[in-house]
C-alpha cells in the first residue's frame, strides 16, 4: 500500500494562490506589517541582500509569550514584482528510532512566509543507539546532510541555517552522553559543511513543551487555522514518538472558568491573535518506551518463579547488543502462533533481559489492554483535577473542545494504522476493533485484512501490543470517548506533520542573534 495514501490534500493558505480550508470572507489586508515590531518576526527581512556587508542574524525559537508573525490574509497573496526572496531552512529531527532531515523552501516576501516546498529523508537508527560513539553518531547524519546539500542551491548554503534537535531518545540517554554527542555534531557541521549552524540551542535536545507546541503550529499552519485575519477553531494535536508523546490543544472554558496555572499553560501570539494552549510532553510514554514498560511487567512476573530467567540477567546495554535470547516467555500482547524473538527488556540500566515472547494458544487482547492501562498509572495522585494519566493535570477534552473540532493524531499513531488499510478518519471504538483483530492472530488476519496488511503484521510481532497501548492511552489515559472521531495523516499537502516546520519558521527571522551567514569565511577559503 502506498505509505502516503493518507496524505491530506487541499489548498493551504501557505501555497501561492490558494485558499485555506477554513477561509473566512475576504477583507482588505492591513497595511501595518506587524502588530508590534518590537517582537521577533517569523518572516525573513526582505531587504537583506546576499552580500556579506548586509548579513543579519536570525531569531530564536518561539518563547512563551512571544509573537510568531503577521496573520495571513485570506486574500490570495502574490509577491510584488520586485520581491522574489527565497530562503531555506535545514532542520534535522534526531528522534529515538531514527533521524530525519527536512529542507524547507520559503518565499519570504510575505508574512507569514509561504512554504514553497519540502524535501524529506529519514534513516535509522537514532542517535541514542550510538551511546558513547560520538563520532559515529555525528557521521550517521551525513546521508541526510548530503540531501540538504543537493537541495539548497550552492549560492544559498552559506546563508541557510541548520539546526539539529534531538527528542526523547537522547533525553533518556543521560546528560553526559547526550551532551558529548551534540558537541561532536556541532563540530562536524561547523568544520565539514557550509551551512550556518544555529548558535546556542541550535544543536540541542528539544524541550518537550516546545516539541508539542511546534507540532501544533505545524499542523494548524498547514491546515490554514492560524495566520488568518479572523480567528477560527484550531485542531488538537497528539504526537506519538518513540520515547515520548505530546498533547497540545486550545481549550475553551466557560464564563467563570480559566486554565489552571502551571507549566502546562503556554501563551503566545501568532499574527493578530493570542493563543492559550494546554500542552504536555509525557516523557517515557512514547511507543518504544511503552513497549518496554509493558514487557517489563511480564518479565518481572516471570522472574518470581523462573530461575533460568534470573540467571540470564545482563548488566549493561553493550553486552546485550550481540546476545541472543535462550528463554521463552508467554506474552498476552503477542497474537496466537506468533513469536517475538530477541526482545530486549530493560528493567533498569544494570538489569536487562533478552527473551523470546510467545503468543498464548488463545487470543488475550483484553489482558494486554489491562497491562497497557496499568503502565498509564491512571490511579496516581491527582493534585490539580482533572488529570489524564500518571497524575498529570489536563482540562477535559469532552468539555473544552467542540464536538466538531478536529483532533489530529500522527507519527506512530499513523504508522500503526495506515499500513493496515485504516482510513484517514476513524473513531476510538474503530481503533479498538482494529486492535482486537490484530491481537486475534493469523487466522483472523487472513479473513479480514489484505495480503499486504498481513505481511506487515508478520514482520512486526508486537503490533498487537502497540495498538493495545495506543487505544488505552487515547481512551483510558486521555479520556477520549469511544465515539469521538480522530484524524490522522503523515503529511498535509505533501508537507510532513510534526514539530519541525513549526520550529523552522522562527529561524527565518533575521533580526535576532542565533545565526550568522557564513559567506565571508566561505568566500575567503
Automatic annotation (TrEMBL):
Signal peptide: none annotated. Belongs to the GDA1/CD39 NTPase family. After transfer of sugars to endogenous macromolecular acceptors, the enzyme converts nucleoside diphosphates to nucleoside monophosphates which in turn exit the Golgi lumen in a coupled antiporter reaction, allowing entry of additional nucleotide sugar from the cytosol. One of its GO terms (molecular function) is ribonucleoside triphosphate phosphatase activity. One of its GO terms (biological process) is nucleoside diphosphate catabolic process. It is found in: Golgi apparatus membrane. It comes from Cerrena zonata. The keyword Transmembrane helix applies. Coiled coil: none annotated. This is Guanosine-diphosphatase. GO terms for cellular component: Golgi membrane. Its main location: Golgi. The gene is GDA1.
